[in-house]
TrEMBL record:
Belongs to the CdaR family. The lineage of its organism: Bacteria, Bacillati, Bacillota, Clostridia, Eubacteriales. Residues 345-401 form the PucR C-terminal helix-turn-helix domain. Residues 157-288 form the CdaR GGDEF-like domain. InterPro entries: CdaR-like_regulators (IPR051448), CdaR_GGDEF (IPR041522), PucR_C-HTH_dom (IPR025736), PucR_C-HTH_sf (IPR042070), PucR_dom (IPR012914). Residues 7-130 form the Purine catabolism PurC-like domain. Coiled coil: none annotated. Pfam families: GGDEF_2, HTH_30, PucR. It comes from the Bacteria. It comes from Clostridium saccharoperbutylacetonicum N1-4(HMT). This is Transcriptional regulator, PucR family.
Length: 406
């Protein structure tokens, strides 16, 4: 679990610390803490930054020199530091407005920490938070990777071990997959096409997901895999209700903060035995696949809600599906390919979706009712069927589903 800059505001020793600038950078990940003091040249102290550090200064070498403080913020930004904590009171009485402006511009969170707060306690608590977060993240990553992708024995005490980190895995659990759509395009729009930048976006997304889930009292084991965020959640009714609300908020917030990115959600069935989480994972994957064919964006679906797709997508022999599709609707597939003006597949699909109602289908297709009637008769001729026969309509609808997948 990564610790973000905003997370340090929750620490006991920093309860009196105030954010004065750079709020846009609060989602940055903290790799370590760095106390920088140099009497001769205050800028000398930060030349060893490697990226990801939050810097603390007392201002002993700066005092009232505004220019040095603003330069310090600029250098922290250049070194990929993630924030600056200024111990105000003795040497720096107040953080100047110019420094706040620079922090806002460069998105470097700038904090004012009262002089009375002991820096040794601050550095100790932030360091401990980072270390504990890394230990927890490693354990839960290994745990979730093992149950989903490995053959390793989970061990009898795995639920007790998870409980140590306050993860409740009692009762039925299920796997939830968040498919990130448009990630590469978003990165390109921000001129962030290198692997490190894309990884940072993924970390930010995962942390956003974690924060919202915890807001709804859902502390879950979570990992990311390619363009997916995967987590395990309890499947009892109250937990699933809160999960649905959290997922809706995640979708809304991601769309608002990251224009162009959307989130599809697939949820597998719940099982009491954690050994069956692979089944739940595969079910969630099938849900994600079904959303691609169903035109869903920003959708939240459970495995039990996808109907016929769960059957079709579990057929491994695709030639069986191809043969069925050709046998039932092959003639209009070919006809639609050779006719640029009339898409018989689209017409038939819409007609069946509208329960064979000529009027509503014509309205949705934006064509005249008589034109639609003529084309429906043409389809019946091509397929040698009657669209007033329930069984034939069922077979055709099945073939249309398969055609979407193929």
């Amino acid at each position: 679990m990564s610790i973000l800059v905003k997370d340090i505001l929750k620490l006991d020793t920093l309860k009196d610390m105030v954010l004065v600038g750079g709020s846009a950078g609060l989602e940055k990940c903290i790799e370590w803490i760095y106390v920088s003091e140099c009497l001769e040249d205050p800028l000398e102290g930060i030349k060893w930054l490697q990226g990801g550090e939050i810097v603390i200064i007392t201002g002993v070498g700066i005092k009232s020199d505004i220019g040095v403080l603003t330069k310090l913020i600029e250098e922290i930004s250049k070194k990929s530091g993630v924030g600056l904590i200024v111990n105000v009171g003795k040497y720096i009485k107040k953080i100047p407005e110019r420094a706040v402006e620079i922090a806002d511009k460069l998105e470097i969170p700038l904090f004012a920490l009262p002089w009375e707060v002991r820096l040794v306690e601050v550095s100790k608590q932030i360091s401990n938070a980072i270390i504990l977060a890394r230990i927890e993240e490693k354990f839960m990553n290994d745990f979730l990777n093992n149950i989903l992708f490995a053959q390793a024995d989970l061990g009898v005490n795995v639920k007790e071990k998870a409980n140590y980190f306050r993860y409740n895995l009692q009762g039925k659990c299920c796997i939830c997959i968040l498919q990130i759509n448009g990630l590469k395009e978003f990165a390109q729009s921000k001129a962030l096409e290198d692997e490190i930048s894309i990884t940072k976006i993924k970390v930010t997304l995962r942390k956003l997901v974690q924060d919202i889930l915890e807001k709804y009292s859902l502390k879950v084991p979570i990992i990311d895999n390619e363009e997916e965020i995967i987590f395990l959640n309890r499947a009892e009714e109250n937990s699933m209700y809160r999960l649905n609300r959290a997922l809706q908020e995640i979708q809304e917030l991601v769309s608002k903060r990251m224009a162009g990115i959307s989130i599809n959600v697939g949820i597998g069935n719940g099982y009491e035995d954690l050994g069956f989480m692979k089944e739940s994972f595969n079910e969630a994957k099938i849900v994600i696949e079904s959303l691609k064919f169903d035109g869903g964006r920003q959708a939240i679906r459970k495995y039990n809600d996808i109907g016929i797709y769960s059957l079709i997508l579990n057929v491994n022999n695709k030639s069986i599906l191809e043969n069925y599709c050709k046998q039932v609707i092959g003639p209009i597939i070919e006809k639609s390919k050779n006719n640029k003006d009339v898409n018989y597949i689209k017409i038939l699909d819409m007609y069946l979706n509208e329960n064979c109602n000529i009027t509503t289908t014509a309205e949705k297709l934006l064509i005249h009712r008589n034109t639609l009637t003529y084309r429906i008769k043409k389809i019946e001729e091509l397929l040698n069927c009657s669209l007033h026969n329930f069984e034939e309509c069922f077979n055709i609808k099945m073939a249309l589903y398969i055609n979407k997948i193929l």
